[in-house]
């Protein structure tokens, strides 16, 4: 059970972690405490704003809009890494989410799939909105991601979270079914968690440095622009037609399936958007390792745990996070797969994957 930090303690914790802080208007007394609980708190949730521009984004998150009053978070993280504090107390950011996920956050263990919306997250999570369109094209600068890491670590350190594992920091996509944030070139919630865990092993004023190329992850982002209609009961190995890489930007691909080859540690966020689902229809996502012997075709060698969201009809955004070890040489490759269950084909109109890989 954790009592929320006071405004003074929050500012002090952020600054001690090296975060640039701007205190916006009357943020210290701006909250939704009159409509519901604030605390006990158990974790930090990361979002993207679906907006552009720091000033407009901060103003929106402070004021809210006609259907959702502000504050919409506790802090807005700009692309330059500055954290603008806009609320202290209950904020309209998390909404209702999966109680099993909350229990996993409390116990600091691996997160289960978010397939329910039965628990008030606004009472339990600090929330940071990060300025990004969330359209798979708007990149996340390194300074912004570093600020997410430091702000999250500051709160975890102040509460003593993270001693068992790094799952006190989650993405909105891991809390509420259908959410997709944060996403886009340059961000991965798995990477953020790993970096928070590393920061917590050091004093608050620690700055990472001196890493070798082998210790620095390579970040690539994959997208399937053209949709695909899936036949029920058959696993489909996704082919990708665009890839983003640091220093190179976007480039087209010839519908390649391979996400990664050779021996690596990896962290992967994989998401699909489906239209026209019937009530109770299930979509399954998984990541797999394929192996190929000389002169033979690729064959399944291993699958990581499957995410199985069930929808109540209409449109579904499904996303999940995996991390693991891809062994061997170029005879092994990492692929992403999707399957639908039911009695009719399902059109998939968006497929994305955000990959961080460390050579071993």
UniProtKB/TrEMBL annotation:
State what protein this is by name: N-acetylmuramoyl-L-alanine amidase
> Which InterPro entries does this entry report, sorted A to Z?
Amidase/PGRP_sf, Amidase_domain
Identify the residues that the record assigns to the N-acetylmuramoyl-L-alanine amidase domain, covering every copy. Answer: 27-183
What top-level branch of life does the organism fall under? Bacteria
Recorded GO MF terms: N-acetylmuramoyl-L-alanine amidase activity
To which species is this protein native? Streptomyces zhaozhouensis
Quote the CDD domains the UniProt record gives. PGRP
Q: What's a BP term from Gene Ontology annotated to this protein? A: peptidoglycan catabolic process
């Amino acid at each position: 059970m954790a009592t929320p930090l006071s405004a003074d303690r929050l500012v002090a914790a952020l600054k001690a972690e090296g975060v640039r802080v701007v205190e916006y208007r009357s943020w210290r007394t701006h909250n939704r405490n009159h409509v519901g609980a604030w605390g006990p708190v158990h974790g930090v949730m990361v979002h993207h704003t679906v907006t552009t521009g720091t000033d407009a984004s901060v103003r929106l998150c402070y004021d809210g809009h006609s259907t959702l009053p502000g504050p919409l978070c506790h802090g807005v993280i700009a692309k330059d890494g500055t954290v603008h504090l806009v609320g202290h107390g209950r904020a309209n950011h998390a909404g209702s989410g999966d109680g099993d996920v909350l229990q996993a956050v409390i116990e600091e263990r691996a997160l289960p799939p978010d397939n329910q919306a039965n628990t008030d997250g606004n009472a339990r999570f600090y929330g940071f909105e990060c300025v990004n369109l969330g359209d798979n094209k708007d990149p996340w600068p390194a300074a912004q991601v570093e600020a997410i890491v430091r702000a999250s670590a500051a709160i975890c350190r102040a509460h003593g979270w993270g001693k068992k594992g790094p799952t006190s920091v989650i993405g909105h996509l891991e809390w509420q079914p259908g959410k997709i944030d944060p996403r886009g070139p340059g961000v991965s919630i798995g990477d953020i968690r790993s970096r928070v865990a590393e920061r917590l092993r050091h004093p608050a004023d620690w700055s990472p440095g001196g890493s070798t190329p082998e210790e620095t992850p390579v970040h690539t982002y994959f997208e399937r622009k053209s949709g695909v209609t899936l036949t029920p009961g058959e696993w489909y190995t996704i082919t990708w037609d665009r890839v983003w890489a640091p220093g190179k930007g976007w480039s087209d691909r010839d519908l390649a399936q391979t996400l990664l080859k050779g021996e690596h540690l990896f962290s992967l966020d994989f998401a699909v958007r489906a239209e026209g689902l019937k009530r109770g229809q299930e979509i399954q996502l998984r990541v797999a390792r394929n192996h190929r012997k000389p002169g033979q075709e690729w064959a399944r060698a291993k699958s990581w745990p499957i995410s199985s969201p069930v929808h109540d009809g209409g449109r579904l955004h499904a996303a999940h996070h995996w991390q693991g070890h891809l062994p061997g040489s170029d005879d092994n490759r990492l692929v992403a797969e999707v399957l639908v269950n039911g009695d009719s084909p399902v059109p998939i109109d968006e497929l994305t994957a955000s990959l961080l890989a460390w050579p071993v």
